[in-house]
Amino acid sequence: MTKVKKPALPSIGWREWVKLPDLGVKSIKAKVDTGARSSSLHAYDLYQFERDGEKWIRFKLHPVQRSTHEIVQTEAKILEFRSVRSSSGKASLRPVIVTNIELLGLRWPVELTLANRDEMGFRMLLGREAFRQRFLVDAGKSYYGGKPPRKKKSKRR
């Protein structure tokens, strides 16, 4: 009996630029964390509401690290509320949404918990459930998917 070889998985680095098209996020730097099970997205000004009998959440986020200039306001259907333990060991109940993510030209749905990550180094954390059986992580490299084009600064006269 011959063993069928699985196709090789593409590699990603320990940090990658990703897109969240359903949320209107053109690019956000994510830390790829094999030690975290779930993924988390920076969110603030969370407002829960009902639409057609289902729970939804409206929120804002700053997609650029160490900057509050760019603000994206968006909304998504709430999948559930989940108790998540932070790296410091503190548990909190967070809303969970499902949205599409794009990386290396691939698009797939991921579950994201919403939390204020202003004090964290990355506005998004990509946990292993999001990339399991899709990618191999090369912990020594970054940005296999490339970097987004830089915005041109306007010239002052």
TrEMBL record:
Residues 12-144 form the Retropepsin-like aspartic endopeptidase domain. It comes from the Bacteria. Gene3D superfamilies: Acid Proteases (2.40.70.10). This is Retropepsin-like aspartic endopeptidase domain-containing protein. The lineage of its organism: Bacteria, Pseudomonadati, Planctomycetota, Planctomycetia, Planctomycetales.
